[in-house]
Structures are given as C-alpha cells and as structure tokens.
Amino acid sequence: MADNKLDYILQLADNALIYGHRLSEWTGHGPQLEVDMALSNISLDNIGAARSFYQYAAEIEGGDKTEDSYPYLRDVRDFKNVLLVEIPNGDFAKTIARSFYFDCFQFHFYTALQQSSDERIAAIAAKSIKEVTYHWRYSKGWVIKLGDGTEVSKAKMQEALNDVWDYAGELFAPNKLELEMQAQRIAPDLAPIKERWDNSINEALKAATLTITDENGDWHHNGGKDGKHSEHLGFLLAELQFVQRAYPNSEW
Amino acid sequence: MVNKQEIYSLLENVCDPEVPALTVLDLGVIRDVIIEEDLITVKITPTYSGCPAMNTISANIKFELLAQGFKNVKVEEVLSPSWTTDWMSDEGKRKLKEFGIAPPQYKTKDNPLEEDAIVPCPRCDSKNTKLVSQFGSTSCKALYKCLDCLEPFDYFKCH
Asked: What ipTM score was computed for the predicted complex, to two decimals?
C-alpha cells in the first residue's frame, strides 16, 4: 500500500517536472521578453512543485534515494506523467493551448488535492495552488487575446486548441492506481474536477470567440499514466538526463 | 545556554540574496527556532516552490550561525502553513519601497488575485501606474510602469 502511495506521488511529480521542462525550453526563445520571463517563471514554479513531491518520495523510499534519483535515473517507462505535458512545444499558440488545458486542470485539481488525507501532499497542494492561480490566469489571458484578436491569431489559436484537445481527456480518466488512491482519500475524485474544468474552459472560450468541435467524441490519447509514452518523452529525457548519464554521480 | 532571542537577532544579519534590502525576518520566512542542548534548528518556509534563493537563504543561515561559533546547526523546511506576503513586516515593506520595489498592497485574503490592484509608484507615489507583466525578474515580482514619472518598477506581488 505504501508502494502505491509512492507511485502516486511520483505521478504528481512527473506531471509537474515534464511540464516545467517543456516550458523551460522557451527560456531565451520567447516571442517577447515578458513572455520569456512568464514562461520561465511558470516553468520554475512547476519544477519547484516537482521537487517537493520528489523529496517526499525519497523520504518514503529511504535508502540512498534523493530527490534527484527520480528525474535523472529513471527510464521512460518509469515516468507516469500524462501525454499532454510531454508533447513538443510547437509554435506559441500550441504551447499556450497546452498550458490553457493543463493550468486549468492544475487549478481545479490542486484546489481539491488540498483536502488529501495525506498531510504532506495537502501541504504541497496548498503551496502550489497560489502559484497555479497566476498560471491559469496567464494562459487564459493569451487564449482570449489571440482568439479575440486578428484573423490570423484567431485561426492559429483555434488550430492549436483543436490539435491539443485529444490529449486533455487523459487528465480525467483515472487509472487503477488513481482509483485506489481515491478510495483512500489521498487523491481527489476526478469527475467533479472535470465538471469545473469544462465550465472554466467553456467560459474562457466564449470570451475568446472560439469553439471546440469535438470530432472524436470521448476518444482521447491515453497511456502516459501507466508509463506508455509518445516517442517525444525519450528525447526530452535524453536532454534532461545527459550529464548524469555521461558522468554518473557527478555533483556541482 | 543561548536563548531564542539571541538567535533571532543574529538572523537579522541574513538577507534575501535577490532582494538584499530585506532580512529573512522582514521577509517572514523564519517559522521557528528550536534550541536543544547544542543543536540549533531553524525552521524556514519557502516563498515560492521554485525560488532558487531558498537554497542560498538556507546556506546563509547556516554560515551565519556557524561563523558565530555554534557548531551544530540545522535548517529545516516547513511547507504548512504556506508562506504569504501577509507575514512580511512593516519594516520590511518600508525597506522595499526605499529600495525601489513597490511592497505588497493588500492582505491576500482581501484580494487574492489582485484584481484591479492599485500599485503606487515607489519613486513618486503616483497611483497612475500600469501593469506591464504579471511575471517579473523573480517569482515574487511583477513588472509595472509609472505613467507620471515614466519609471518602470518592480512590484512585490501579494501571495
């Protein structure tokens, strides 16, 4: 049972880490200085949250595990993040579309996670929710600005939202581990979170004069939570883990 | 044996590396000091999850106390309750303004999202200012500009 909690904590950590890593790829490449700083800040908040979860995982597992063991020394199949956070950044619209769906999820998810029966998880959620509130406001602001902007910005934002849409469903489809964690009240029920997410997303889309045509119905990409990833995660980890793989146990 | 108050006064010497106008006490990150025999434990709470200054703050607290002759010093992170700018001292807010950074304007519970926040310019006190970017040079700051004296300035966000 303790092992399952460990896996769940790692899933929470992996989502934040991989999302934070993707956003960090914009550092130095943002279309404006302010955007560069914003995406880097959001990245940092997520990597910070990931560290809190990895530190907790290392304490539970004990032995010679540290917070660095998990990001640097596990292979693709060991990562349990959703596919949404690992998809490549694409252009600015695609990055914003991914953030729009994920920040909104994190906002409602961390709000609920503050009630976790595990005090430490609840504390990390309480810490993160304050930061995620800024993130959600930021990505929502860009969707509205671009959607209700020029013909070109509207078309690009719409296309990006459509492209990323089929990755959002996995957020709300609990796997076996999550159902077990829900039963122990460590994890929140995802159904009410989905409802709140739908409302927030629809409200923002209305302000943005955009619509999602859900061509595939309930179908969505799936598998990340069980370690079955897209081809993109391996490349991401190759970069993230390079130094530790090339020079094992190096410290600086 | 050393008392708590002495340790607190030594902590006045430890400043935030990114906002050097503030001591760790002004910032409100010191949650407690525990003295057991020769072991001194300082409990701190992180400001933002990813704030790189926290590692430096933690190291600097250790250095300061070790330099003062204490041999056994531990710095522990406490997450709950999470840090808020409401814990920043009035003295800290005054120092921030003097340093050129607008201090937090609200209690977080009164206006958590700082909707329509009015942030006076730290240089000329004009309330005619504009948000340039919600995210600034560090996690804790937003970027503003004054429409009267035309100076850009940092705002320490309510958090």
From this structure: 0.85
